[in-house]
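SEQUENCE-TO-STRUCTURE ENTRY
===========================
Question of interest: how does this chain fold, as expressed in backbone structure tokens?
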Amino acid sequence: MSHIPPARSSVWAGFIALAIAMGIGRFAFTPILPLMQSDQGLALSQGGWLASANYLGYFAGALSASFLRWNASTLLRVGLLLVAASTAMMGWTHAWSTWIAWRSLAGVASAWVLVATASLCLARLNAIGRPDKAGWVFSGVGAGIAVTGLVCLFADLRGIASWDTWLLLGALAAVAMVATLPLWRGSVTMPSHNDANTRQHGASYRRLILCYGIFGFGYILPATFLPAQAKVLLDDNAIFGLAWPLFGLTAAASTVACGALLRWFSLRQFWLISQLIMALGVMLPAAIPGMASIIMAAICVGGTFMVITMLGMQQAQVSAGPRARNLMANMTAAFAAGQLAGPVVFSLLNEHLGGTLDGSLYLACAVLVTGCLLLHRPFPEYVAQT
């Protein structure tokens, strides 16, 4: 029987792993983009392609995580190393074409780390009867976003070049990897594909994957356009630069609070409630334009997006048991596909049907509510075969 590390070491290691993968590998580009525009002349369209490259990499990473033969610990180690390396290479190289490659690689690696960390930590916490500690693990995402945002704000205020900021973030990721060592040993057993639970619950698994993909579609539109709307209304770099760290802190606090609230709600019920709050936040700037509604939207979206991410991963663990890694990978791929589809749908509606941003926000709200309808029925739980 393999040794299961205590809750504290697993939680801390998972917290740092997600802070590196998501705070740096996935989301560092958002606060550092203004620096790259200022000192490297990066065009907004080029920035859009770099963001899309990361999204595509995340999608590819999630898909590959479901069939790679590596165990979860190996997937974690390789992913973390690639996040640190690809981040540092953003500062080491100065050609847009190479930046595309590094941001794509960072997206792949981030997905690997998310899937591996979720499967390892949730399985270990469940095994020692402490699933309530999952909120602390997933708060690492928000904490990573906050720290990255503060680093970029400091760099902006002190006139530090964007390439040096990338190098600093890469070094930070490499050093922080030491704290993830408790997850580098052991793995999660993967049963064969003829597992009876998989055959019995295939339709429910597909519904779970679809719900998670809908969440990705509904989340990405406000995440993409709310910062731009806020920038128009609040043209102060120092104050605006605090928006990203505050977004991260809100996300971190929300997952910790969720752990306590789950004493009164099931995973599915709390997911449904959180998604309704997100839908309200998505709709607010369109229904009541103004800075106040944008702030409320940021709170509603920022306070639920990591909660739903965590709840989805926990539901996969409960529903699929030892096969949770496969289900988590497929759900993450569906999220990435929804995230890719959101801006494309907006562009098509805008270019060919004269659609507005407000109309797209209403559409995103409607899609999120549709996802809530799919969450109305319970998901099955994994039953060990005897």
